[in-house]
Design a protein that fits this description.
Chain A is mainly alpha-helical. Chain A contains 10 helices and no strands. Chain B is elongated and about 130 Å long. In chain B, 33% of the residues are buried. Classes of the chains: A mainly alpha (331), B alpha+beta (530). Chains A and B meet through α8 and α9 of A and α2, β1, β8, β11 and α11 of B.
Chain lengths: 331, 530
């Protein structure tokens, strides 16, 4: 039987708490950048400009080597004000926080000699880690660093709830979970859930921004500092098309595992049902983008509904209903 | 044919139209049903309709809980029951939604498949005159002659579908996107069809077998404790096999958390049934025995206390009837061990006054709280029972079926079955009734509960599900995109060639920019790219 290494588990707890604290600090930094930075206001402007320049790039050829058509190239030189510097510090903190978060996961795995997603607490830790790691990639590809606060806010809340109410001591898992499918199925589920947090947040911001773009009297202070609706839409879509196949894979593996563990591949267990519902909603999101009259705001609303299904699946189904997936180990 | 030329006679078009109107109605219905908008609405309805299944107890998953729910919610529960909210996934409304969605899917897929075949044979489009209007554009002047540039461009675009139009190349790639899209949707269609077939041709049953050599043969439904079958299964042609459960072991952590369940079994199926050969199998959670098209799962376990009754005349009878756990964490169990045949009595009426039943609680690790028996752990460390002994007519001759875990309460209420003793016993202890009958608690046996599943369609479902996943990944991650290259001799005497490269992504938010930049760079610089 696996022996629990208590000191490693303690180190994991410390890393987790530290990561949460760092995220909170980074959250403050990013909110300062978002509120006082010039970037917030300019982001949208710059994005538009960049597109225009790309489209119109005719100019003298050959010599223009090395003008990479990649995102993240500042077209107007960054003013480098105090708020921007604070934002950069926030980003550095974010990287540090993600590293601590990763350490917490790895140490938990080492402490229990199994994959670190065997109960609700560990699963929550893995989901939030994926969300933050995804966000790091997003801010590298898009100029949306100043929005990190909006992403960090739900993640910090999740991590706080997870670390206090849902905390579970390191322990081996029950026989039903002792299978290599725990590695495959649950990692796919956690990855997709973490990924889905990003488009969810982007779509919420999209709704504010697009309302503002239609009528600038709406949310004049808040939405004006968001990037253009187009950028937010792109973030939401690109993350979703990666998350959705992973989610599908996770459900598929879950069905194969269920066949080996419970005697049927699909039995409308509450968790299965809500996974199905979330899958249908995300399928509707992808279809809505190809349907006249459903693009834009409606698609964003669907994506937010998808996010709520994901969160509902994470909390309500694990904690309130009783089903075969009641592995939370809480209460 | 049309009535447009006719003077406005109100009657005439009216008389001619029913058929046409019916056709128009059918056509419009079909168009409406197969439109993407309807599909979206249906998808939402499907998600919404599935939700009650997660929130309300479902009869198929937990019948007692469902009845309980209905009972506690009065007319509200009855109404929900009548509206099939406790069998959501076989309800009329759920089936209606998914059938409509399937029709919509077919209606969408059929034209798309034709389109697909056509587009697979089509050549890339003509090069637009003004490439600089494309979302992606690059222009450069080089020294290489035009023919060489075109040749190099062909080499660079080797994976692309290309046509040459004089001085330009038109290339397109990413056709796998639509391929994936179709595979995904056809995969889904197949999956739904086989899922429905599976519901008709599958069966599932549970049975409790004593883990000391107890046997179970899949001869018929009557052998099962519970059995749930699809419409096409009448229980006469179950696949023949037998299992024998030799032992069961459970391991627990110091805190009483289960860590491992395992059971050694032997089985025979096919030719082994004739020869009587038993093959061993190590049955564990997550590793069912698969034989003769059936799957046998280790579902649960419990204890059977062994009681020996020694009658006044000296004859003794031993029984080990399975008791069922009431608390899964500590395996505190309840049950009823029934001794219907007192020895030496031939008269039926007398016999029915002397039958014995032992009911009560069993604790694998007993702990007495005052006089109340509880269990402090699931492991068999200090077994104990708290029993009531009842004597009289246990009611098994009435012809009415009764639970193996309970005594017939109506017999007690009638006064036909009377409590004659109540005592806590440890292993080896006994009690004596007023007529001299001794009841001894001899020990404990383990039982396992097995689930037997049969579903001939599931391998097809798996195949279609994998097709869905592969198709889905292709349809979301492959980008359909175009690139055009045009070469023209440069004006002026400096000579050289003007290269223009234009690009267009046919997929929204594809993120084609980076790739286009790379391609254009290589075409312009004449370097062979990766």
């Amino acid at each position: 039987m696996p022996i629990i290494n208590e000191s490693l588990s303690r180190f994991s707890d410390w890393s987790y708490t530290t990561a949460t604290a760092i995220y909170v600090l980074a959250l403050v930094f990013f909110l300062i950048e978002q509120s006082f930075g010039a970037k917030g206001r300019q982001a949208a402007e710059r994005q538009k400009q960049r597109v225009r320049e790309l489209a119109g790039a005719g100019g003298p050829p050959v010599t223009e080597y090395g003008t990479p058509h990649t995102y993240g190239t500042p077209v107007t030189p960054s003013p480098g004000g105090r708020a921007e510097r604070i934002g950069k510090m926030g980003a550095a903190l974010l990287v540090l926080g993600v590293l601590m978060h990763l350490a917490a996961l790895v140490l938990r795995g080492l402490a229990t000699s199994r994959v670190p997603w065997g109960n609700m607490y560990e699963y929550g830790m893995a989901v939030t880690f994926v969300a933050m790691a995804t966000w790091l990639v997003v801010i590298k590809k898009f100029e949306v660093r100043h929005l990190s606060g909006f992403m960090l806010l739900p993640v910090v809340i999740l991590m706080f709830i997870n670390g206090t109410l849902l905390y579970t001591i390191a322990a081996p898992v029950q026989p039903a979970l002792q299978s290599y499918w725990l590695v495959i199925h649950v990692s796919a589920a956690a990855t997709s859930a973490g990924l889905f947090l990003v488009p969810g947040v982007a779509s919420v911001l999209y709704l504010f921004r697009s309302a503002h773009e239609r009528d600038s009297a709406k949310f004049p202070r808040f939405a004006a500092k968001l990037p253009s609706a187009d950028v937010l839409d792109r973030i939401a879509y690109r993350t979703t098309i990666i998350a959705f196949p992973i989610f599908t894979f996770g459900v598929l593996c879950g069905a194969i595992w269920a066949e080996a563990a419970w005697g049927r591949f699909w039995g409308w267990d509450p968790k299965e049902t809500v996974a199905f519902i979330a899958w249908v909603i995300y399928a509707a999101f992808l279809h809505s983008r190809a349907t006249a009259g459903w693009r834009g705001t409606r698609a964003a609303v669907i994506n937010v509904v998808g996010l709520s299904a994901t969160v509902f699946n994470l909390f309500f189904i694990n904690l309130v209903t009783t089903g075969l997936h009641s592995y939370a180990g809480v209460g | 044919m049309t009535t447009t030329a006719a003077p406005p006679e109100p009657k005439k078009p009216y008389r001619n139209s029913p058929l046409r109107r019916a056709l128009a109605f059918a056509r419009n219905t079909w168009r409406g049903l197969t439109s993407m908008r309807t599909a979206l609405v249906l998808l939402f309805l499907l998600a919404l309709a599935a939700l009650p299944g997660a929130l309300l107890p479902q009869r198929k998953l937990n019948a007692p809980k469902t009845d309980d729910f209905i009972a506690t919610h009065g007319w509200w529960g009855d109404l929900l029951d009548r509206l099939q909210f406790f069998e959501v996934y076989s309800s009329v409304w759920f089936s209606a939604i998914y059938l409509l969605l399937m029709v919509s899917l077919v209606g969408c897929l059929a034209p798309r498949s034709f389109e697909y075949v056509k587009s697979m044979r089509a050549k890339p489009v003509l090069t637009p005159r003004n490439l600089s209007r494309m979302p992606h554009y690059r222009r450069a002047v080089v020294d290489t002659p035009p023919e060489d540039v075109l040749k190099a461009a062909h080499a660079r675009l080797s994976g692309w579908r290309r046509t040459e139009h004089g001085t330009s190349i038109s290339a397109e790639r990413g056709y796998l996107r639509e391929t994936g899209n179709l595979i995904f949707h056809f995969g889904m269609l197949g999956l739904i069809v086989f899922f429905a077939l599976g519901a008709m041709f599958s069966y599932e049953g549970q049975v409790i077998v004593q883990a000391n050599g107890g046997q179970f043969c899949n001869g018929g439904i009557y052998n099962y404790d519970s059995f749930d079958a699809g419409l096409q299964i009448d229980g006469t042609e179950l696949s023949p096999w037998c299992v024998k459960v030799d032992d069961f072991k459970a391991q627990y952590s110091a805190l009483g958390q289960p860590q491992k369940y395992e059971s050694s079994i032997e089985y025979q199926s096919g030719a082994d049934l004739q020869t009587g050969t038993w093959r061993p199998y190590h049955l564990e959670v997550n590793s069912p025995l698969r034989t003769a098209g059936d799957r046998i799962y280790l579902l649960g376990h419990g204890y059977s206390p062994i009681f020996t009754v020694t009658y006044p005349d000296g004859t003794s009878r031993s029984l080990a009837t399975q008791w069922r756990p009431v608390d899964q964490a500590t395996l505190l169990s309840e049950g009823a061990t029934k001794f219907p045949d007192p020895p030496g009595i031939t008269d039926e009426a007398t016999r029915r006054t002397k039958q014995l039943a032992i009911t009560g609680l069993f604790a694998p690790t007993s702990f007495l709280h005052g006089n109340v028996l509880t269990s402090s752990g699931p492991e068999l460390t200090k077994p104990g029972v708290a029993i009531d002994v009842l004597r009289g007519d246990i009611g098994t001759d009435s012809g009415r079926g009764q639970s193996i875990f309970e005594i017939d309460q109506s017999q007690v209420d009638k006064g036909a079955l009377k409590k004659v003793a109540r005592q806590n016993l440890d292993v080896g202890q006994d009690l004596t009734l007023d007529d001299g009958t001794k009841i001894r608690f001899d020990g404990v046996q383990q039982w396992v509960s097995l689930q037997i599943s049969h579903d001939p369609t599931q391998v097809f479902v798996l195949g279609f599900a994998i097709a869905m996943f592969v198709g889905l990944s292709g349809s979301l991650l492959v980008k359909r995109r175009r690139v055009w290259v045009r070469v023209t001799p440069a004006d002026g005497e400096a000579g050289g060639t003007v290269i223009e490269v234009g690009g267009l992504a046919r997929t929204d938010q594809a993120g084609y920019g980076e790739e286009f930049g790379r391609i254009a760079e290589q075409l312009v610089s004449g370097k062979k790219g990766t």
